[in-house]
Write a sequence for this structure.
C-alpha cells in the first residue's frame, strides 16, 4: 500500500457526526461542496476529506481552508470504493454522513439527519430527497423518496437503487457489521445497501437536504453507450479478480444477458419479470460463485440490464 499523507486537525471529543467526502480531480465544484458542509447550522462534526490522487488543483483548494473540523488525507489513486472504505475507517463519530465533491448540502442537512437518527434508534440509515441540478447549478428537478421502511426494504432487496448516496447518514455501528464499501468502481452504494438493510431500518426524510448534480461524464448518468462499456469493464475486473479467468464473463455473462433480453420481450409485467430474473440469476450465481460474489455480480447485471432494455 502506498504511504498515506495525512493532515489531521484535532477537534477533541466534540464531534457527533463524521462527514465523509472522497474526491478525485474535483477542482470545478469542490469549493461549493466544502463551503456547504462548513456552513451547516449543526456545528459539532468532523469533516474527513479523502483526496484520491487528484492531479489538478483539488489539493490546493482543500488546503486553503483553515477550519479545524477538516481532517485531510491523501493517497494515490485507488478508486472510489477503496477510498470510501479507507475514509470510513478514520471516522470517530457515531454517525457517518456522506457527500460527494460535486454536490451541495442544504444548510440544515446535518441538523435534520442527526436529530432523526437520535430519535429513531432502530434506524441504520437515513436519506433524504434531493434537488437535482445540472453542471451550471440550474435546477432541473427534485426527488421525492419513499418513506415507508417496509417498501424501502423490499426495493433494496430487489437491488433497486432508490437512495441518493450523497444524502445518507449511516449509523457507524451498523456500517461496521457489514463488509463495508466494496472495492469496485460503480454501484458501491447499491452493494452496501443490500448488506446494511439487515442491520436496521432504512428511513427517509422527504425534504430535499442536498443538491445533487448530474454530470454528463458520470458513471451513473452519462450517455448509455459510455455507461454500458464502463460497467462491462468493471464487471470483467471483478470476475478476473475473483476467479483469475479472463474468459469467465464470455461463458456466463453473455448467456445471462441474452436470456434476460429474450425473456423481457415475453413479459407483460416488467417489474415482476425483473424480480423473477434477479432471483433466478442470484440462485444460479450463488451456487457457482458463493453468495458474496453473486451479490456483487447481480448488482452489475441488474444495472446493465436496465440500460439494455432502453
Amino acid at each position: 500500500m502506498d504511504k498515506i499523507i495525512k493532515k489531521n486537525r484535532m477537534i477533541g471529543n466534540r464531534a457527533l457526526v463524521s462527514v465523509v467526502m472522497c474526491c478525485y480531480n474535483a477542482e470545478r465544484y469542490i469549493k461549493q461542496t466544502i463551503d456547504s458542509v462548513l456552513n451547516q447550522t449543526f456545528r459539532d462534526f468532523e469533516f474527513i476529506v479523502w483526496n484520491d490522487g487528484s492531479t489538478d488543483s483539488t489539493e490546493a483548494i482543500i488546503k486553503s481552508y483553515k477550519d479545524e473540523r477538516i481532517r485531510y488525507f491523501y493517497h494515490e489513486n485507488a478508486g472510489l470504493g477503496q477510498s470510501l472504505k479507507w475514509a470510513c475507517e478514520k471516522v470517530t463519530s457515531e454517525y457517518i454522513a456522506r457527500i460527494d465533491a460535486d454536490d451541495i448540502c442544504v444548510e440544515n442537512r446535518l441538523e435534520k439527519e442527526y436529530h432523526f437518527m437520535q430519535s429513531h434508534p432502530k434506524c441504520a440509515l437515513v436519506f433524504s430527497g434531493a434537488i437535482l441540478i445540472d453542471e451550471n447549478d440550474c435546477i432541473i428537478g427534485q426527488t421525492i423518496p419513499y418513506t415507508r421502511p417496509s417498501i424501502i426494504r423490499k426495493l433494496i432487496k430487489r437491488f433497486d437503487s432508490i437512495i441518493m448516496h450523497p444524502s445518507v447518514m449511516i449509523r457507524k455501528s451498523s456500517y461496521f457489521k457489514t463488509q463495508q464499501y466494496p472495492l469496485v468502481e460503480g454501484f458501491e452504494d447499491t452493494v452496501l445497501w443490500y448488506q446494511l438493510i439487515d442491520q436496521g431500518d432504512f428511513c427517509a426524510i422527504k425534504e430535499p437536504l442536498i443538491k445533487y448534480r448530474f454530470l454528463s461524464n458520470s458513471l451513473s448518468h452519462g450517455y448509455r453507450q459510455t455507461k454500458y462499456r464502463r460497467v462491462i469493464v468493471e464487471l470483467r475486473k471483478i470476475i478476473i479478480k475473483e476467479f483469475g479467468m479472463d474468459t469467465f464473463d464470455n461463458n456466463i455473462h453473455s448467456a445471462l444477458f441474452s436470456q434476460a433480453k429474450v425473456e423481457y420481450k415475453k413479459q407483460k409485467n416488467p417489474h415482476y419479470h425483473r424480480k423473477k430474473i434477479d432471483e433466478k440469476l442470484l440462485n444460479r450465481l450463488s451456487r457457482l460463485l458463493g453468495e458474496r460474489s453473486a451479490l456483487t455480480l447481480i448488482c452489475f447485471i441488474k444495472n446493465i440490464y436496465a440500460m439494455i432494455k432502453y
User: Anything to note?
Assistant: The CA atoms of residues 260 and 277 lie 7 Å apart. The two ends are 41 Å apart (CA to CA).
